[in-house]
């Protein structure tokens, strides 16, 4: 067990997991959105690839 509190105020990972009755929390964006991230500047494209980045013009080819 750690002496420092986590971001949600839990004292340890075990405490954070016990807050959710269905098991450990899962979160974040789906990995399938990775194709929408510009490889040059990191901007998230609003359109499905293939498309061009509106910031730098790089081609987002898609999966």
Q: Which value, in Å, is the CA radius of gyration?
A: 19 Å
Protein structure class: little secondary structure
Biggest beta sheet attributes: 2 strands, antiparallel
State the end-to-end CA separation: 42 Å
Question: Which percent range describes the beta-strand content?
Answer: 5-15%
| Order of adjacent strands in the largest pleated sheet | 1-2
Shape: elongated
- Work out the helicity level: under 10%
- Structure summary, number of beta strands: 2
The poorly predicted ranges are: none
Mean pLDDT value: 77
Q: Could you spell the SSE succession in H and E letters?
A: HEE
Question: How many H/I helical runs?
Answer: 1
Keywords:
little secondary structure; 63 residues; elongated; single chain
Description:
This protein is low in regular secondary structure. The chain contains one helix and two strands. The protein has one helix at 13-18; strands at 51-52, 59-60. A two-stranded antiparallel sheet has the order 1-2. The longest helix has 6 residues, at 13-18. It is elongated and about 45 Å long. The mean pLDDT is 77.
């Amino acid at each position: 067990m750690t002496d420092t509190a986590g971001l949600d105020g839990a004292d340890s990972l075990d405490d954070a997991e016990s807050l959710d009755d269905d098991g450990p929390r899962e979160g974040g964006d789906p990995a399938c959105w990775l194709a929408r991230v510009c490889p040059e500047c990191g901007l998230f494209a609003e359109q499905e690839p293939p498309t061009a980045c509106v910031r730098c013009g790089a081609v987002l080819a898609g999966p």
